[in-house]
Amino acid sequence: MSLRIYNSLTRDKELFAPLAADEVRMYVCGVTVYDLAHVGHARSALVFDAIRRYLTFRGYRVRFVKNFTDIDDKIIARAAERGEPWGDLTQRYVEAYTADMAWLGVAPPDVEPRATDHIPEMIRLIERLLAAGTAYVVDGDVYFAVRQFPAYGRLSGRDPDDLRAGARVEVDERKRDPLDFALWKASKPGEPAWPSPWGAGRPGWHIECSAMSMGYLGETFDVHGGGQDLIFPHHENEVAQSEAATGRPFVRYWIHNGFVQVGTEKMAKSLGNMLNVRELREGTPTHPGGFDREAVRRYLLGTHYRGPLEFWEPRIGENGRALGRMQGVIGRAFRAAGDAGIPGADLAWPELRLSLVEAWLDGLTGDELYDQVVTRMRQFVEAMDDDFNTPEALGALSELARVLNVYQEGGLAGPRLDRFRHGAAVLLAQARSLGLLWSEVNPYEFTTESLEEFRALVEAREAARKRHDWKGADEIRAELSERGVLVEDTPQGPRLRWKQEPASR
To answer: Is 437 within a domain?
Structure first.
């Protein structure tokens, strides 16, 4: 089995061969922090979180860098509109984004740089471009001379001669060519500014990611990711300025995720059809109780990352039910195994490896379950090895859960229990390599007494909700949570489950 990745640069699936045999250096463009994260941001974050986790599962050491753009025209405009310091605005939205990603189970990057912490590196990179003759200064601004980089357009597949100013290209009559883009912008009165050899100003958007990615990962690294809307001009400009400065290839594999759509339209602020992650957490008009985070995660991973995803809230519930079937199998395995537990259940995600899962198969030998588990396990790996095909991988997990559920109906005494435990270990490890089945695994059972007590609290919460007493309902939910019980609002009514938070996701 070998991993193949669709490379946006070559427009083909390629055998993945990182620069170092056992290490992957990976950079993903983060958000511009002037508003709350929306579902499109969530999809991109989950896609690259799943890719990172699976590469780790495959045995690679992954160094993952994802930035915050915390200085930008939009940030300056939003801060002025609200009458607050731009640094306060960006800090608030960095914290909001971090909380949203934690709710979705997105693992923190190894490095999460902010643009404003790396101004000196950007200035040095611009100086290299000026020395190479691929940049020029105009009235305190510095521009990259696109025509001095013959390979411009290679990533996006666009011919520079066909591009016109105004189509996502900044218009400025002082530029030598309409395609030239800003590396440094002279400050205007009242704007944030930093000193530079060309006068006070701030960096252009594109230079930020080149300076930060190469600063942490080297002048050539393995994977650069982001949304499809970043291919042109952002990533195209990153390639041009980086390779013009270093004379070396910038990135080996470019990975881009597709858009989230509402109907036939892209989800976008400009169209007024955005849904924020916070709304998914706290509730929407059609789902006031909020959604289960792993159901959201499974839904957003249920479409291949390169394709568009048409967002429709009821599908989150469908994914929750599919997830529940897997949770049921794992819960039964925990309860039946008792103190023996499930192999690997105590491992944090960076410790999970395919080699461990393959070793657990030895616990299934000599039984009809062996071939079925091996088949589903291989289907999962083959799907993920084929350009991270999460829909097919999720299908393999569902099939494995079905196989294990049928098997346990034959009884779990003696060797059958041990084989069931090992089969459940395979399911749990592979699901966790996608960031699933971390907080929802239920190794306990409700006692009759506690169940009656908790049900009474749930009924009181439902009564409060019907009275529109949201504060009272939230207080009851908080009380249940403090006692280790989660109440989940489903189309069939509220559902109770024990809460089990792992030490590390």
So the answer is: no
